[in-house]
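Many introductory courses stop at the sequence. We go one step further.
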Amino acid sequence: TGTAKSDPISIEVMNLPEDGRSAFFTGGVGEFEITSMIDQATIKSNVPMNLKVTIKGRGNASLIEFPKITWPSDFKYFESQGHSKNLGQGITEKTFEVVLIPLKTGALTVPAIPFEFFNPSTRSYIQKRTNPIQINVLEGEAGSTQVNQDEQPQVSQSGTLSNTEVQTFSNTRTGEIAVKTSSSGLFLGQPWWRWVAWTALLFLIFFIGIVVYDHLRKKSLLRLELLKKKETYLSIWTQLEQEAKNAPLHMVLEKVSDEIYTTLDDAYTISSRSLPIRELAKLLTEQHGFTQDQWKDLSNVIEFSEMVRFASHATGPENEVRSRAVKLIENAKNLCLSISSKKLES
């Protein structure tokens, strides 16, 4: 791999000439055309109208400021800062929207707007202007909105309004000033639809709160119920362990076997007492996930219980038998508590 670079190119940047420049020059360099249009030719006095001025051509139109013009006293005006866009192939466009408010009735003229730009090809200043526009101003209706000093938008030091302020100040479809919001349809200073939306939102929040509270309450009650059942199971097995130390062993082991079968029946919905030991082993290991060690612990208790009940003389000295019984019962307890916990939590 490698890098390469081109030779530097020197350019000379020259100032625009002073000769031939008039007061109408506002920064345009290139070759442009200027047009203007209004949104309505007949309007009532003291009602705003929109004048759209468009500058388009080859060059950077975004640098152009609004052409300088002295507006006649027949109009009150508010100029916008304009917005530009690139049309491709070196062509750009900038549009200014001016709010004009005719103050007199009769035939009025929107004056021609002069625009001057510097043409690099001819190295000269060229001046163009829009065509004047005739409008017919009618007498405003009684009670129509008037333009008062308090209702006028604040104009920046440059004497222009932003595009948003121009759109806010005038409503070109209805010809009504929109600086002040009408108080009709309001409740406590807000539109009625906003109160409806807020009320609906509050009801939605309230409903969600109830659902969440109910869910948490049920979850809490379920945990409490599980805890009580676990404590009950633990109490039963603790009692069996205590009885295995001094109570008749065959009776204790019979209770242990019953508790084992009951746990299996509740957890797996089977009839474990009625199944042969081999079928029970196959059912638990193949269908219910018992490991060989788990089944060994369970079967040892069942077999030992049967041996003590029906052949107690063959099991050995009582101390050894009780010691073994306690150990087997502890293994069965741990296994049954694990089975019960999984069943309750599911």
